[in-house]
Amino acid sequence: xxxxxxxxxxxxxxxxxxxxxxxxxxxxxxxxxxxxxxxxxxxxxxxxxxxxxxxxxxxxxxxxxxxxxxxxxxxxxxxxxxxxxxxxxx
Length: 90
Description:
Number of helices: 3
Strand content: under 5%
Largest sheet: 2 strands, parallel
Number of domains: 1
């Protein structure tokens, strides 16, 4: 039982830095850049939700995939995180 608790705590601790960086971007950088995201929810909100829901590895993969798709010639509109389920077999 103790190993499960440690694994859970490590998974939560590992996402603190990415989420802190996203929050920094949302409150400090984003107001100067403007609302340029083509998706709803925004890429930063999507990334934050991905880290919370899936942890560091899958959160990073989902976030990168979303940011790569966010360009002038890409798709746009409503693109929720729930649209892409992850099969975690651990």
